[in-house]
Amino acid sequence: MWIFTLDALTSRIHHMSTKRTPQLSSRPHSLTPVVPDRFAPVLAELAEVSELFRAADKRLYLVGGTVRDLLGGHTSTAIDFDATTNARPDEIKRLLSGWADAMWTQGEKFGTIGARKGERVYEITTHRAEAYHPDTRKPDVEFSDAIEIDLSRRDFTINAMALELTSDSPTLVDPFNGASDLMTRTLRTPLDPDISFSDDPLRMIRAARFIARFNMNPVPELVEAVKQYKDRLEIVSAERIRDEINKLITVESPSAGLWFLVETGLADKFLPELPAMRLEHDPIHRHKDVLTHTLAVIENVHADANESFDFRITRLAALFHDVGKPATRGFIEGKGTTFHMHDVKGAKMTRKRLVALRFPNEDVVAITELVRLHLRFHTYEMGWSDSAVRRYVNDAGVLLNELNVLTRCDCTTRNERKAARLSQRMDELEERIIELAAKEELKSMRPELDGLAVMERLGLPAGPIVGQALSFLLEIRLEEGLIGDEEIGRRLDAWWSEQSAVG
After folding, report:
1. What does the radius of gyration of the chain's CA atoms come to, in whole angstroms?
2. Do 12 and 75 reside in the same domain of the chain?
3. Which of 170, 284, 345, 470 has the fewest beta carbons closer than 10 A?
4. Coil, helix or strand for 122?
5. Does 446 reside within a domain?
6. For the chain, give me the number of helices (H) and strands (E)?
7. Among 184, 214, 229, residue at a domain's last position
8. Are residues 415 and 340 both part of a single domain?
């Protein structure tokens, strides 16, 4: 086990990071100790609560992603203060009483006491040793006095480090060489991966996220354990899997993690549409592998792609936008591979999968609609007339920005001329949208007359005929824009005369 003072450890990591192939020796290097500036705010903010435990002769350790990210230099404003201690829950409550502004005990039976001081939330948990049953994710929780036992139950070694705050100087406890793995970008579990993944199968999907987020390389035994225990995902709730998908899809570059899910067979268990897109490359019919293309589209969607769009929703739409291709693939002599109606088929498949994964209804609606609409841009080959722009904006609705981003990112061709041509057409579309919006043409894509006005003018009660009239008026709005009260009234009267004659 490695126990380093923070000064020595950070100097050591800096030294390691300058080496081409860093290796951890048995003793810290004797370098000038300098505490990086990034540690100072965290240590300062934890000083008061640390002193409470120190005065009571109890130990307090900062654990989790905060320790990992501080050591690795991945600073963030969204810092979680998760701590563990050898104090029991009743002792934690006593120590925090009078100091915390608020305290909650919902997790007390699992050893966790929550507290708020100012705007900062703390979660402090008694050292735990957990035992899992083979057919459930619910563990039997036992408390422990040893920090090493508590760290051994963590998912990966890079998360199995603790920063002791009650020692004479901040000290890193690293029983599983997580610091070394962090520097060498090695992903492994503290215990045997068979034990770790059998205990909590969700860790297998989480491995994909860490591979992607930190550009890590899983050790062979971890990969083999995933292949062996992937069926155990059946005991994990759809909601937990969904949450991991959301986290994975929003890392800066998720492709490596998604490939991991495919190549280990893990995706077959909760997202079979992903490996199904791994179509063989056919040079005769000249089509790209759909999965490779899909991952490229996902990578193209950046968080700053638009001033106002939903990054997560657009990334998920990119993930699903071509799921209908395998089911609709065909070959036409002289034209090559076709995927007619894959947008419609894909939207149905997307809805089914998202519902199964317990995504909120608003997510299901938005992502499904983006999949259905992702080819809409390409139906306007003759340029962006006022009518074409109105119809495109009307189809996109509140998802206009997301659809524009997805459309741009869907271009993964290596043909520079083709890519430039598509980019130019998108630029033209967005310029035309701005132009029409300035005229308030796009403020509300509704019929020029509302339902009440239709009923009053035609002397009709509410019913399907009014709906038909509104559809007729909407077509006029989309095709011609606003034409004025007198003209729209005349058109409605003429339409109603035709309907009455037919009826």
Report:
1. 29
2. yes
3. 284
4. strand
5. no
6. 23, 14
7. 184
8. yes
Cβ neighbour number for residue 56 with a 10 Å cutoff: 15
Asked whether residue 278 is assigned to any structural domain, the reply reads no
Single-letter amino acid, residue 337: T
Separation of alpha carbons 115 and 380, rounded Å: 57
Reading the block at residue 193, the tokens are 């991966």
Q: What percent of the chain has pLDDT over 70?
A: 84
Query: Is the same domain home to 35 and 131?
Result: yes
Amino acid (1-letter code) at residue 475:
E
Predicted pLDDT at 326: 87
Q: Does residue 463 form part of some domain?
A: yes
Per the structure, the count of domains in the chain is: 4
- Strand 139-143 vs strand 2-5: parallel, antiparallel, or unpaired? unpaired
Question: For the stretch 108-117, what's the b/e string if a residue is b when 16 or more beta carbons lie within 10 angstroms of its beta carbon?
Answer: eeebbbbbeb
Residue where a domain terminates, one of 161, 184, 207: 184
Count CA atoms closer than 13 A to 428's CA, side-chain side: 16
Phi, psi of 116 (to 5 degrees): -125, 130
Closest by CA position to 218, among listed 261, 253, 250 = 261
Sign (positive or negative) of CA dihedral 73, 78, 79, 80: negative
Q: For residue 277, is it within any domain?
A: no
Find the distance separating the first CA and the last CA of the chain, reported in whole Å: 88
Q: 312 with 329, same domain?
A: yes
409, 497: one domain: no
The set of residues, in sequence order, having a beta carbon less than 8 Å from that of 75 and lying 6+ positions away, is: 38, 69
Which tokens go with 388?
């074409």
CA–CA separation, 484 and 125 (whole Å)? 68
Q: Could you identify the residue written with the tokens 């969204």? A: 78
* 197 three-class SS: helix
In which residue ranges of the chain is pLDDT below 50? 1-2, 4-6, 8-35, 282-287
Alpha helices of 56-177 — where are they, by DSSP H?
65-72, 89-96, 147-152
Interhelix angle 386-396/400-409, nearest 10 degrees: 100
What are the structure tokens assigned to 442, written together?
């796009």
Q: Are residues 159 and 225 in the same domain?
A: no
Which helix (H) or strand (E) segment is 188 a member of?
A: none
Q: Which domain holds residue 338?
A: 286-438
Using left for φ > 0, alpha for ψ between -120 and 50, and beta otherwise, residue 466 falls in alpha
Angle (CA) 269-273-276 rounded to 5° is 100
User: Residue 388: helix, strand or coil by DSSP?
Assistant: helix
Structure-block tokens of residue 335: 């034209």
- Chain length of the chain: 503
What does the alpha-carbon distance between residue 340 and residue 338 come to, in Å, rounded to a whole number? 6
Side-chain half-sphere exposure of 286, counting CA atoms within 13 A: 6
pLDDT at 219: 97
Whether residues 253 and 333 fall in one domain? no
